[in-house]
Design goal:
It is built from eleven helices and 18 strands. The chain is α+β, with helices and mostly antiparallel strands. It catalyses: L-threonyl-[protein] + ATP = O-phospho-L-threonyl-[protein] + ADP + H(+); L-seryl-[protein] + ATP = O-phospho-L-seryl-[protein] + ADP + H(+).
Length: 494
């Protein structure tokens, strides 16, 4: 059965055959086998046949014993129903359909992460806007079947700023993520005008808010940075550099340091050995590795440097080592990488790790893997094995909320972390979660390479906002800070 893709789809398929017999580098034991009903054109009836699946890869066995497989990434998927047969799945790729019926719920739940669906309004209610950027808006999403809430990033395909290549790459990277402290995508929908990327709704603020209103103990700083380093180790193991690690992109599923989530992969890129990328200068001023600002080659250790900046802020009550009122001076300080470590009143072991993470020379700088094995994390290395197992059983999914924008750059204890206090000066939005979603009160608009709408952690920014507007960089002048979502808009280099 043939079916043509809509001409307005950004997920263009090739004209190759649906099935292929080329060699595939997946072990046979990694595939899960299930039996479904398939319609036989010869016998005009439904026959029971086996299908195997691993991630987005589906395999079938022909009568002659030959195995064929198909990668259904970005294929169209939909639930169908035929009287006297029941429910089934239709997967459309390369102008061809695969239809099968039976107990398809499990397969649909797994495949919808990799495939594209249509008609989002049949299943969800798009509710109030949570944030906006130059490339996408973020809305609250309500599932009709059970009223569960999610976040959805909506890209306008008709906008002259829409970049389909970047959206497809971001989806590819997000789909590789499966870690309790790293975001991932749940479902993706496409209409004639929009792309909808659905993620978990995180309502407990971000680290930038926490650093501005809470004094972290040394033990809490160690616990928090270990979670970030552990998550970055996983991200790097997938061959991905995040390139925008900063407090605004560290979200909380719950208001404690056990529930950190690294978000916003809008600037993420796959590592290459040459260390040069299509959009090479990416990041946020004050949080970037100096080699990026110097237009030198870089790799995974750029993320380690940015994590070191966060660790520095955790240990100094939110002080930034680079950000000052003058934006040009902020850039210069960030590029020079000269840090006053005397501001850190911590043990020698902690200072040594911090200096290793913030080493100016990337060849001498430690990697996140090396930082993770540091002696100060000895207890947490043992404890998080249990924590991660428990969380994976509860929930595999986390989310990203960050629309793109247009800047040219892109002490260990066994006690649980204390809940962060919610300031009475916070305002709140929403109806159902009226007392859970804080609005950012600070509007210190920091000039960013990646996120020109983000807030300024640890800097006296009374005059910074106006100075940044007068800078020579192309930034989004719209100041629409309503909550934590708007602090995470990413942008690519020009």
């Amino acid at each position: 059965m043939k079916s043509k893709f809509s001409i307005d789809s950004i997920f263009h398929q090739t004209d190759s055959e649906f099935w292929t017999n080329e060699l595939i580098q997946i072990r046979e034991q990694d595939f899960k086998e299930d039996y479904f009903l398939f319609y036989s054109n010869n016998k005009k009836t439904y026959k029971n046949k086996a299908l195997k699946r691993h991630g987005p890869i589906i395999k079938k066995l022909k009568k002659n014993g030959q195995e064929l497989w198909c990668d259904v990434t970005n294929a169209i998927i939909q639930i169908i129903e035929i009287q006297h047969v029941g429910y089934g799945l239709r997967i459309t790729k390369n102008q061809s359909n695969l239809e099968f019926f039976g107990y398809v719920d499990g397969w649909f739940k797994e495949l919808k992460k990799f495939c594209i669906q249509k008609q989002i309004k049949n299943l969800f209610i798009i509710s109030n806007k949570l944030g906006s950027g130059n490339y996408a808006d973020v809305h609250r999403l309500i599932r009709k079947s059970d009223e569960k809430e999610f976040a959805v990033k909506i890209y306008d395909k008709l906008s002259n700023k829409f970049d389909s290549e970047c959206v497809i790459k971001e989806l590819e990277i997000l789909r590789k993520m499966d870690h309790p402290n790293v975001i991932t995508v749940l479902e993706t929908f496409e209409s004639q005008k929009y792309i909808f990327i659905i993620t978990e709704l995180l309502i407990s603020g971000n680290l930038d808010d926490i650093l501005s209103k809470t004094t972290l103990t040394e033990d809490d700083a160690i616990k928090g940075i270990f979670k970030i380093i552990d998550a970055l180790t996983y991200i790097h193991s997938k061959g991905v550099i995040h390139r925008d690690i900063k407090p605004e992109n560290i979200l909380f599923r719950k208001p404690n340091l056990e529930e950190i989530v690294i978000s916003d992969f809008g600037l993420a890129e796959f590592y290459n050995e040459e260390g040069h990328y299509k959009y090479h200068r990416c990041g946020t001023a004050g949080n970037m590795a100096p080699e990026i600002l110097k237009d030198q080659s870089y790799g995974y250790k750029a993320d380690c440097y940015s994590a070191g900046i966060i660790f520095f802020q955790m240990l100094t009550q939110g002080q930034s080592p680079f950000i000052v009122e003058d934006y040009e001076e902020t850039l210069q300080r960030n590029e020079q990488g000269q840090i006053d470590f005397s501001l850190v009143q911590s043990s020698l072991a902690i200072k040594n790790l911090l200096q290793q993470m913030l080493e100016l020379d990337p060849f001498k700088r430690c990697s996140v893997q090396e930082a993770r094995s540091n002696i100060i994390f000895k207890k947490y290395n043992r404890q998080t094995i249990i924590i991660k197992r428990k969380r994976i059983q509860q929930d595999h999914t986390v989310s990203s909320y960050s629309p793109r924008s247009t800047s040219i750059y892109q002490s260990p204890t066994n006690q649980t972390s204390p809940h962060f206090p919610i300031s009475p000066s916070y305002k709140f939005i929403g109806a159902k979660n009226f007392h859970t979603i804080p609005l950012r009160l600070r509007s210190h608009e920091r000039k960013l390479f990646s996120s020109p709408n983000s807030s300024n952690s640890g800097a006296n920014s009374a005059k910074l906002q106006q100075k940044q507007k007068n800078s020579n960089f192309k930034i989004n002048q719209k100041n629409n800070k309503t909550n934590m979502y708007t602090g995470m808009s990413s942008n690519k280099a020009i």
